[in-house]
Amino acid sequence: MLHQDYAGTVEDALIRLQYDLYYVKHQSLWLDALILLRAMGRLVGLRGR
After folding, report:
1. Exposure string for 2-39, b = 16+ CB within 10 A, e = fewer
2. What 8-state DSSP symbol labels residue 3?
3. What is the pLDDT of residues 1-47, one digit of tens each?
């Protein structure tokens, strides 16, 4: 997801897993579109890493 960087610790990996499980449980075109729009916003706003 857009909220987490690469997992450097076990706690970071757990947070990433929680995001992944949320995505799997709530799969929809709406969620995909929302993620895509947020990613585009970061690219246009140059707020990425």
Report:
1. eeeeeeeeeeeeeebeeeeeeeeeeeeeeeeeeeeeee
2. T
3. 455 566 678 888 899 899 999 999 999 999 999 999 998 988 888 76
Q: How many residues are recorded in the chain?
A: 49
Residue type, 11: E
pTM flag (> 0.85): no
Cα angle 10, 48, 25; round to 5: 55
Contact 42, 1 (CB under 8 A): no
